[in-house]
Amino acid sequence: MHPEKIDLPESPTLRGGNETILFVEDDNFLRPSICKCLSQLGYRVLSASNGIEAVEVWNQNRNEIQLLLTDLVMPGGINGKELGERLLRENPKLKVINASGYSAEIVSEDFRLEEGVNFLTKPFQMFKLAKTVRNALDSLS
Questions:
Q1: How far is CA 38 from CA 90, 139, 141, in A?
Q2: Around Cβ 122, how many Cβ atoms within 10 Å?
Q3: What's the rounded Cα separation, in Å, for the pair 71 and 25?
Q4: Beta carbons within 8 Å of 81's beta carbon, 6+ residues apart
Q5: What is the rounded average pLDDT of the residues 131-138?
Q6: Residue 132 near residue 116 (C-beta atoms within 8 A)
Q7: pTM of the model
Q8: DSSP string across 54-105
């Protein structure tokens, strides 16, 4: 008797890039680990712990940043939605991904969020992060 060969699913390939990402997250434990994941994928990561700090980083690096990955709920006077809107006014080509521990339906009453496109529900796996970031950067709109 020969045991049947079982095909195990291949682990998905993580596609990265060399673009610059502004990552905004107020959780001091989560921020370094996500920065490390993005850096391991080849991205240049600039990080901030709140919206005010993110605007400062943006002002110094606006010509280099292609994507904003931001938590929606943050302390400090500027939440993720407001930050995204502000930066998009300055650069309409900027790609924006919002993240939250809440579902897209709960947080997106007045603007469109689509899981895996411009929204990530926390916690998320590295593959989901990598895929969403790459898809956003590759999108034409």
A1: 24, 18, 22
A2: 14
A3: 5
A4: 72, 98, 111
A5: 95
A6: yes
A7: 0.86
A8: HHHHHHHHTTTEEEEEEESS-SSS--HHHHHHHHHHH-TT-EEEEEESS-HH
Q: Report which listed range, 72-81, 85-94, 107-116, 118-127, is most confident.
A: 85-94
Please state, in angstroms and rounded to a whole number, the distance separating the CA atoms of residues 96 and 133: 9
Q: Collapse the DSSP code of 34 into the 3-class scheme (helix H, G, I; strand E, B; otherwise coil) and give the result.
A: helix
The rounded distance, in Å, linking the Cα atoms of 109 and 23 is: 23
Task: Tell whether the model's pLDDT for residue 107 goes beyond 60.
Answer: no
d(CA 99, CA 32): 16
User: What pLDDT is stored for residue 11 in this prediction?
Assistant: 53
Give the model confidence (pLDDT) of 60-90 as tens digits: 999 999 999 999 988 888 999 999 999 999 9
Q: Residue for token digits 């905004």?
A: 24
**Domains of the chain, start order:** 20-138 (3.40.50.2300)
